[in-house]
Amino acid sequence: MPDSTFLPGERVDLRPIEEDDLEYLRDAINDPAIWRPIGGSRPINRTQEQEFFDEVVCGDDGVHLLITADGEPVGTIAVRDIDWEASRGEIGYWIDPEEHGQGYGTEATELLVAYAFDQLGLHRVQARVFAFNEASQRLLESVGFVREGTSREFQFVDGEYRDTHWYGLLEDEWRDREP
Q: Which stretches make up the N-acetyltransferase domain (predicted)?
C-alpha cells in the first residue's frame, strides 16, 4: 500500500483506516487487553468490523486514524462525536498491548489534538477513561488534559460497574502549555 500518512510524527504516523486494515482491527479489538480498557463487552467478527468501518470510520461524525510505527499498525485514534455548534469533540484511542510503554499513544494524541484545534477549529477536546486505566489517565494528563469529574459506576465491564473519569482540554490550555 502506498504511503497514505495524514499526520506525520517523529516515531508514529497517523493514516486513514483502510479496508485492508480490518483483519488487524478485528483481531486487536478482541484482545482483552484492548476491549476491557475501552469498555467493549462483546466479541467482534469480520462483518461487524466491516459495519463499523462503513458506518463510523467512513462517516462524517469524526476523524478515525490508524497509528503506525515504522509502517506497521500499532493502534487507532479518533476524534469523534464532534459537535460543530459547541466546537468540541471526544478523543479515543487504543494501543496494541505489545507496543505499550513506547510513547506511541502520547505522540498520537498530541498529533490529533493539534489537528483538532488547528484544522478542525475545535475549542475543546474531551476524553473519558475508566478509573482502573491508570496508564491512560497518565497519558491524558501528560498531554495537558484536566480531570473534570467522575461518573460513578458508569459502565458494566468484567462483571462489575466501573467509574469513568472525564477529562477536558481547552484550546488556550493547549497553546499555553510548556513544550
A: 12-173
**36 grid coordinates:** 476491557
Beta bridge partners of 90: 80, 126
Please state the domain count of the chain.
1
* 2-20 confidence digits (pLDDT tens): 468 999 999 999 999 888 9
Q: Which three three-digit cell numbers place residue 147?
A: 480531570
Residue 13 in any domain: the answer is yes
Tell me whether residue 1 is in a domain.
no
The mean of the pLDDT values for the chain is 90
Residue 35's domain spans which residues? 7-176
2's grid cell: 502506498
Beta strands at 88-95 and 124-130: parallel, antiparallel or unpaired: parallel
Q: Considering the domain boundaries, does residue 75 fall inside one?
A: yes
